[in-house]
Amino acid sequence: MNNMTLIGRLAADPEIRTSKSGSEICVFTVASDQKRGDGTDFFKCYAWGQQGANINKWFRKGKPIMLDGYMQSRKWTNKQGVELTLWEFNTSSWGFVPADKTEQKPEPQQSGTALPSEDDLPF
Fold it and tell me: Is the predicted pLDDT of residue 32 greater than 60, yes or no?
């Protein structure tokens, strides 16, 4: 079964394109760090119809995203006669990823007024 979950950050803003048949496709690249910290993998991703429109609406470069879908390969021969293979990720569903702690807003600062101790409360 070809099923994959991909979590990463958008490497660039998504683009909406129109296929030859008139369908809208959202095209975007997701950067995902390798588990052992050996580098980063980049995945060319596609989302069709309303899913693609929503990704284009809610996500921009650098934002984290979670995708479910499948990988598909395309093969062709270039002008030099070399056979090439391109792997693409086709999105079935997507979701928001909570922001890192470094991206969260700082906790509100306490005012200079101290709270009364329990002994000072009238009840």
Answer: yes
Q: What are phi and psi of 48, to 5 degrees?
A: -105, 155
Q: How many Cβ atoms from other residues are within 10 Å of residue 120's Cβ?
A: 7
How many Å separate Cα 20 from the centre of its chain? 26
**Can you give the pLDDT at residue 110?**
46
**pLDDT of 8 above 50:** yes
Tell me, what amino acid is at 42?
Answer: F
> Would you kindly state where each structural domain of the chain is located, as residue ranges?
4-99
- Interior CA angle at 101 toward 100 and 106, to 5°? 135
Phi, psi (rounded to 5 degrees) for 53: -65, -40
CB neighbours of 52 closer than 8 A, spacing ≥ 6? 14, 16, 24, 25, 26, 46, 91
Q: Does domain 4-99 have CATH number 3.40.50.1980?
A: no
